[in-house]
Amino acid sequence: MKKALCILFLVLTAAFDGQAQCVGQAGQVKWHIWMGFETFRDSSYMSVQEFYPETPDQTIILGSLETAVNFNNYYVSLIRGYISVPQTASYYFNITGDDDSQFYLSTDESRDNLKKKASVYSYTSVGQHDKDSTQTSELTQLVAGQNYYFEIHHYEGSGGDHVGVYWRSPNVPDIDTVWQIVDYNYIKDYNCEVSCPERGTACDDGNATTINDQQDGHCNCVGEYPTANACVGERGKVEAYFYDDIDGTYVENDLTNAPNFPLVPDRREYLDGAFGPHDFYDRNDFGSLVQGYLTVPVTGQYEFNITGDNQTFFFLSKNDSIEYKQTSQALVFYGVGESEHDNSVFQNIGPLLLEAGKYYYYEFRHKENSWRGFFSLHWKTPFQTHDGWKRVPNFYLYDYDCEVSCIAQGTPCDDNNPFTNNDQIDANCECAGVPCTGEDCDNLFAKYNFYDKAEHTTNVISTEENSWLSCGGGTAANPNPARSSLNRWIKYDFSNQYKFANSRIWNYNVAGETTKGFKNVVVDYSVDGITWQALGGTYAWPQAPGDSDYSGFAGPNFNQLKARYILISSIDNWGDATCSGFSKVTFDALLCDNKDTPCDDGDPLTSYDKFDDSCNCRGVDINCASDTIALVRGEITDAEFKAIKRIESQSLVPSTQNVTFTAGNSIVLLPGFEVSSDAVFKADIANCVQTAFEENQELSLKKETLLSDDQDRDNIKKVIFRLNAPGDVKLVLLDGKGNKMVTIIDDYYENLGTQVKYIPTAKLDKGTYVVELSINGNQLKETFVVD
C-alpha cells in the first residue's frame, strides 16, 4: 500500500512540475499571427488546423494584453500566457476587439481548465467596453502568487483591427472604477511551444527499406515504405473528382445513380488533405469522390471523425485492399458544421490500432445540394501535442493510382503551373496547358495582374447590345388584330407547342436610356399564330435602374396554358419619344405537343414514343418493363418485343423486318395484324425476364459519342440495363483476363426502369474488356474492344 501511494505522489508531482515549467519570462507575452486567409475565419475553423496553435506565420512580443491597431487584414491571432496578481482580490475582465474576440481564463496554470470569461462577436472601437453584455465577465477571484493560464483568440476580416483585455477590481486602487489594460506588471509568457523540424526537412528514419525520408512537422521522421500494391500512388497527392448538375442531397441514390458516377467526372481538384473542396460556396448540386491510401508515422491508437455538408460517407479499409473498404465507416446523414464533431455517433471511427509502414485504403463519397458544400476528415493521434480533432493533411496520404476515370477532353482545368495558359484536359486525361511565351513570361519575380473570376448571376449587362428595341414610325402591323393600335410589339415563335408557367422580365436597362422601357403592357398567346387569347389584363412593368446589379422582376404567370406563340405589346413606355423595348425575358415551359405527336422520352429501351393528353412523352417498353404491350395499327420497326404477361398487336410486319414476340402468358394477334410474304414472325410463351438474361438483352453495350456543353466526348462506352424490381446491383469492369479493374456499382437499387452508366476508355490499354452485371444474383457479361 505504501508503494502505491508513493507512485501516485510521484506522478502528481511530475504533473505539477510540467505545468510550472511552462511559465516563462515575466512582463511579456507572445502574439502569434496566421496570415493569408481569403475570407473571415473563426475559432471553429482554426481549431481543426493541423498545427494550430503552434507554428504561426509571425510572432510579436507584447508588453500588455493589447495589440496594434490596423495591423493587417484577414488574419487569425492568439495570445497566451499567465496572469499573476500580488494581492488576492476579485476582478472583472472586459474585452474589446475588431473583429471577433474572446478571452479565456483557467482556474489555475492548466490549459485543461480554461473557461470563456468575455467575448465580442462584432467589432468595437478601442475602449468601447459596453457594446455587448458578453464583453464583461463575472467577478472572478485571483489568489496572490498563483499563475492563471489565459488565451485571447482574435479573428480579423477587413478594415480596422485590434484586441485588448482590460480589468478592474472594487478592492484595488487605480482600477476600482476605471477599466485598465492588463499590463506587463501582471503577465508572464507561455514557454511550452513545441519546436520540431519543419515538414519536408530531409532526415533518416533508420529503416533501410524506406525512401524519401522527411520530417512531418511533429518530430517524426517518416519514409515511404515499399509496397506490392501497384495502386498506391504518389505521396501527398489527394485527387478529388466532382460531378456537376446532380439534383438532391443524398449519396445514395442521387449521386450513385447518376450516369457519370463514378468514372466520368466533370472536374477535379488537388486537395491539401482529406478535406475539400477549396471553395465551399462556389457551386451547388454536385457530388464528390476521393480515393487514396492513409498512412501513420507511428504505431498506435487512432480515432477518426468526419464532418460534411450535405450527406458524406467515409470508408476506411483494414489494409490496402479496396475490397475491405467497408471495414470502418463514418456517416454524416445531413449537413453539419465544419467543426461540429458531435452531432451524431455515426461521425466517429475508432479507436483503431494502425501500424506505421502499412497502407490503408480510404474513400470519400459526398453530395452537395445548395449553399455550402464540403467534406472533412479529422483524427486524434498518439503524436498530437494538443487534444482535439485535427484535419488529416496530405503528408500522410497517397494517391489511388488504379482509376480509369477521365474528364472529357477539352474541359478547362488547372495544371498548377503558373506559366502555362489555356489549361485543358488532353487525350490522355491529363491537365496540360500551353507554355507561356514572351520576355520574362516564366520569371517568378515578374508582376502579373490577377482579376476576380466571374460568378453566376441573374443580373443583365447594362448595354444596348444586350437589349431589344422597336423604334421609328414604320413598324409592322401588330399580329393580333385586336391590338392594331399598338405598334411596339414582339412575337415569339417557339416552333412547338409548350405548356407555360412562370416568366421573368428585365426591362430596358441601358444606363441613361431606361425611359425606353415598356411601362404598361398586354400579353397574348396563340396555338396557331392566327387566333389570339389575352393573358390577364394590363401589366405594369417597373422602370429598370440602368446598372449591372439589376436582376429583373417576376413577370406574368401563364398557369400551364398551352401555346406556340407569345405576343408582348407595349401600350406606353417610361417617357422616350422614339423607341420602346426591354432587355430580357425568360419563360418556364414544358414541351407539350398534341396527343400522339412523335417524341423522345429519353429511354433507349422504349419505342413508338408519343405525347399523351397530359403533355407526357411516353414510349412502349420493348424489354420486359411492362406487364402488357399493346401495338396499335401501323408498321413495326423494332425486331423484338417482350412483356411479362401479354402482347396485343394489330400491326404490320414488313418484308424487311423479322419480328419476335415473347410474353409470359399470352400473345394476341388482333384483326389487322399482317405479316408480309418475305418476313419471318416468331411468337414465344416464355419467362420474359429470364429469357432476357439468357440472351443478354438487359445489357446493351454500345460505343457512342456523347454531347456535353457543345463538345464531343469520345472514347466513352455507354452501359444500359433495365431494373424491374428493387434489388442488389453490381456492375464491374474486368480486363481480358477476368481481373477486376473497377467496381462501378455495388449497391441496393430502389429506382426502377432504365439505368445508364458511362465507362471512359482513354486510360485503357488496347485489348478486350468485359462488363459484368449482377442483379439479385443473376449474372451476365458483355465484351468490348479498345483498339
TrEMBL record:
Keywords: Signal
Keyword Signal among record annotations: yes
Leader peptide range in chain numbering: 1-20
Domain PA14: 24-182, 233-396
Superkingdom in the source lineage: Bacteria
A Pfam family it matches: PA14
PANTHER family to which the protein is assigned, alphabetical: FIBROCYSTIN-L ISOFORM 2 PRECURSOR-RELATED, POLYCYSTIC KIDNEY AND HEPATIC DISEASE 1 (AUTOSOMAL RECESSIVE)-LIKE 1
Record-given protein name: PA14 domain-containing protein
